[in-house]
Amino acid sequence: MDLGRWLLQLGVHMLLVVRRIQCLRVTDINVPQIVDFRDNVTLSCSYDISGHTLNSVKWYKNGKEFFRYSPLTPPTYIPFAVEGVQLIDDGNECNESSCRVELNLLGVKSSGVYRCEVSGDAPHFQLTARDANMSVEALPQNNPLISSFHSMYHFDDFVQVNCSTDFSSLFTRITWYINGIKVSLVDLLPSIETTIAAHEYNMRRIVSQLNFYANDPRFHQLQLQKINQQKRSFFPNRLGLELRCVAEVDRYPHLQREATMFAQVFRDDIDLKNQKLTNSRSVGSQRAQVQHLPTTMALTMAAAMTAVRLFTPLTFQYGARKSARCKMAAAA
């Protein structure tokens, strides 16, 4: 009975020892999936070394070591030259639980598989690692640009409008929405692509042209439904038009960018002319206020100068008379 109990305790002890030996592991690695070549990037990994002494942490790109953290043997931080990898001075921070490095001057050759490798010291010399892929591209920096779109249209107007994406090394797909309704390919002309070589990348810009009638019922369904719900028998004199251009990059939804513009569609020429007249008066009033501002400032400054001229001599004369009286009193 005692022998069986002793064997059981020995087995439990061995399991605990084995568990402690196998405890060294990388718990997390943080490498961005895609970055812009103009940005700096931070790579980090976290690890659990319970039951072990940390020997080193090594960073690799495509199997080539470019950084080493060795807490037991100075120098603690050791960089290695690897093509496409440029470490930022004083951007490295490593300890018993994590290791972080920062890179800049990215380019095409900075893309690859980045690996964080953690090794323990004697007596077990355990080794564990995790890796992640990072792509360095020329990402769009600005929202798409909508052009040739006006703020007012007549019901019968044929609208022709363009949407241009920002230059990017990734293929960008444009999707149009009119009043929240996705536009079909029937309303689109073939996209035009412009490519230029810059910063080691082939930078592409996509231009999409959309053609439609301003009063197309497909794009005014919600507004007309509201009118029907209100039991109004007449057709409205004006409708709203919201145009949205969405630029998307496949596999990277967080890179989506968009632009939105608004317009009004008038049924009668009189309403359209009145709205244009109102807008022109508003613009004219703003210009008049701007033009009137310098005149007001000039008059204010002139009044101030006049006040100075009026009061300065009086003050001087009063002071002179007072001084003369004091002298006469002293002489007497």
From TrEMBL:
Ranges for domain Ig-like: 39-135
Protein name, UniProt field: Uncharacterized protein beat-Vb isoform X1
Signal peptide (residue range): 1-23
SUPFAM superfamilies: Immunoglobulin (SSF48726)
Gene responsible for this protein: beat-Vb
Keyword annotations from UniProtKB, A to Z: Signal
